[in-house]
Structures are given as C-alpha cells and as structure tokens.
Amino acid sequence: MAGSKSLPVAVIGGGPIGLAAAVHLVQRDLPVKVYEAGATAGSNVRAWQHVRLFSPWKYNVDAAARSLLLEHGWQPPEGETYPSGEEFLAEYLEPLAAVPAMASVIEYGARVTAVSRLGIDKIVSSGREQRPFALTVTAANGRQRRDLVRAIVDASGTWSTPNPLGAGGVPADGEAEFADLIAYGLPDVLGRARSTYIGKTTLVVGAGHSAANVLLDLVSLSEADPATTAIWATRGTNLSRVYGGGADDELAARGELGSRLQHFVESGRIQLVTGVSITAVRASGGQLVVEDATGGDVRRLGPVDRIVAATGQRPNLDMTREVRLDLDPSLESTKALGPLIDPNLHSCGSVPPHGHRELAHPEPGIYTVGIKSYGRAPTFLMLTGFEQARSVAAAIAGDLAAADDVHLVLPETGVCSTGSPGTSASTASTSCCGSSPAAPVPEVTRTSCYGARG
Q: Containing H/E element for 86?
C-alpha cells in the first residue's frame, strides 16, 4: 500500500495469540497497535480463570514472548505443571503486557467495531490495495474514532459469541425469555456461582470438553449436597470425541478428563441423554423443560433448575463486513483451513502445519489468527496459534522465506479416525479442554476450553 508503510499494523485482541503476534511484529521493528476490548490483557481468560488448562506450561508460552520476558527478569514457571486460568494471567499474560515495548502499544477498552478500506466500500476494486485500512474504534471513554493502519491481524477470538442453545444454530423458542436461568460456556460452579448450582438440578448441553468440565464440577458439588444432580444432553450419540484416548493421549490431563467423565456416566452419577436437538425452552412449575420437536412427537427433558449451554462459540463477522474475506461455508473458518479441521470429516490431533497463506484473505493485508481462524471448529490448540502469529508477522514484514517455513507438532489425542461426530465413526478431538491429573472428586481440578487455545 503506497504511502502507508509508516502506519501501524493493527492487532485486534489482546489474548495469548494477539499478544504473541504483537511480540513478533515488535521484534521485527514494525509499528504495532493492539486493540483490546477488555480492561486488561487476556480479559476473556478472566471468565474461566477458575479452570485449569489441560496443557502444561511448556505448551502455553510463545517462544518470542518467552525471550522478551526473560530479557526483563521473568522467572518462567516449571514447564511440566498445569496452570489455572488465573495463573496463566498472573504469571504470563500480565507480565508480557507490562513489558515496556508491549505496554506502549496496547490500548485497553478499545473495541474495533468495523474494518474497511479508507473511502471505499467492499464493492470497489480499482486502487483498493493502495488505500490503508480504516478501523472504527470505540474507546474506553465511549467516544468513537477512525484509525488508519497498514495491515490487520484479527485475533479477536470467539469467546464473546457463544452458540445458542437451539440446535438449529439460532436461539430456541424461550431461550431469550429464560436467559437468567441459562449460563453459556464455563460457569464457576465450585466458586463464584456455587450457590446457584448447589442442591439444584442442572442440565448441561454440549458434547465437548467445556461440557465435561462443568459436569465434573457438578459431580464434585454433589459431594457437599447430594441433592445436586446433573443431566447431560448431547445432540450426537457417539461420545468418543469427548471421552478421548485416555492413557494414549499425549496430553495426559486431556485423556484423564474424558476417562473420569465416562466413569461418572457409567456409574450413574451423571444422567446422559443422547440424540437431543433442542428447539424450545418452557416453564414447568417454577422450573424449566427443554423440548425436541424435530421428530414426529415432541420430546421433553426435565424439569431442571438451571441450564448450562456448553455448545461452543462462533466468530463474530460483523466487524469485517466491508472487507473481502474468504471463509469456509460451513465452519466460517479461513477457507483453506476448512477441509483440514472440519469435524464432519475428522477430529485428528495432527492438523497439518499452516501459516500466513492459509490465514490470508482476498483482501491483501488482513489475516485471521487464533481460535477465530478455526471458525466454529472446536479443534484449536494454543500451540497452533503461536505458529500462526509467527508466520503472519514474518509475512507482513516481507520475510516470505521465514513466513513459509512453518512447523507444527501437536500432542496426539490417542484416538484418530475419519467420520462424522455423532455417527458410528470413532472420533477424537484436539479441542481445547482437558483436566489436570486425577484427584478425588471433592478436590477436582478443572480445565479450560480456552486453556489450550488462543
């Protein structure tokens, strides 16, 4: 883009992958501006800070970030230990954001609401590449402004846009009406939200590792009050993906999570109902029931006191409506990644190495990295994001040799084959959640769905 070399590269999102991208850009002496919508670095992590990652420290620190931190006297945590979200913030993300070279380029409370080319909309082709990007930014004081940047690394993630409870991809009938009784993601069942769940019947919906963590927390809570009960509803019928590879999983904590969950289901501590596609939430005598009206008859499940929708997240595409993106039609991932990560086809732990070429779009200069690059696929690992950030930063700097020299080795799940989840094919996921080493139920350590992803 002629005349824009002096403009900064915008990194949207100050989570682990966004900060990694910023570090790599800073080390290449490129001007950088990080826009973080929250009040602190890694603000989304705070939503699950009570949860323990299933990946040990050695997998959770970007190499360039590690070098920068060591230059400023950082004491790295022991590599084989498993941090909680709170520890991940305090011992890595917050110190990284406080390094002077990083602190000077991060703006907190800055929400990017739109991305466009200066003075032209999506339709115009002539001279497009010569115009800088224009970001519409709402600052912490509520004022809106326009910032010009030379390139964009979108690491904004998906945490703030959870999938609805409704199986059709839109909210179920009654979902909005009863929103105060529905939690999304990973509520702190054993901590801040303990009084909400203890002694109650909770329906957990979802077949991923987030659901597994919530269910295990509810089992633990039942030790204090046996009236605490958990019902687990899944759309599919084959749960091999969440049960995982057990002892064969190279991330032992991830394998242990699935094994413990399977044990509690088989022992009757967790009531499992499969093949449920929720279409409605209804009131029933002060409680809730969910309905599945996809078949000939209406199927009802409940009554329950609370619902946890652990149904995953999706990318928010509103911000990039006026730039030319190339997305997989089903996953909303970058298009080149779709066939490699599509859970309808496989859930292997061996995602092929990929970098800037798979993360770029028809709009030159914009890249999607981190969990957002995977769209709706639940198979992202933080290691993947660090390599994405390195490759994209090299590409923006014009070092294509380094950008194309992509290496990625992910821990195997112990289960890997092709097929559609919920069918007869065995599947396993490199999804981001897991558990820490086995412990008695009252002292259960939890793991984050975000914990191994960026």
A: helix 85-88
